[in-house]
Amino acid sequence: MGCVAVLLAGMKYMKEQGLQPQRNLLAYFSVYEEIGHGTTWLPKGVQDFLALDIACTGPEQTSDECKVSIFAKDSRFPYHYEMTNELIASAKACGADYVIDVLTPHYGTDGDASIAAGYDIRHAAIGPGTSGSHGYERTNMDALDNLYTLMMTYMLQEKS
Fold first, then answer.
1. Is residue 147 part of a domain?
2. How many independent structural domains does the chain possess?
3. What angle do CA 35, 36, 37 make, to 5 degrees?
4. pLDDT at 82
5. Is 106 contained in some domain?
6. In a 3-state reduction of DSSP, which class is residue 131?
7. Is the pLDDT of residue 24 over 90?
8. What is the pTM of this model?
9. What is the pLDDT of residues 83-99, one digit of tens each?
10. What stretch of H or E contains 9?
11. What's the CATH code of the domain at 89?
């Protein structure tokens, strides 16, 4: 729910401040991510897919409960190299405290379903470092702040 709150807060802020994103944005709340078909359908014209999802902490992860994770790879695919590097550059530009993470062999995001369905899109994912999953999730407000800062910076900058 933290990612949903961050996305809604960002959309509310842009509306209240009259900010126009430099990208064509669509907020898409999908379901069934855990069984792999949450985003097997996308609206026409989607070019980039940025998933917001938790970054589980664990012994083989670099995720941190106080930072935003930029996902490099998950159980199915590496994320789009250029888009991932744009997110890293955005994190550096805005001072978001981040880590780059390769996720466990059993973890994936909604962007994977789109790729598996055959969409030719760039896909990437970011999320707060989180301990636990499936109803027992715990993160730090710093991780949510870093997620918000990175997300807003990325959405409001011109696409390179």
1. yes
2. 1
3. 110
4. 96
5. yes
6. strand
7. no
8. 0.92
9. 999 999 999 999 999 99
10. helix 2-17
11. 3.40.630.10
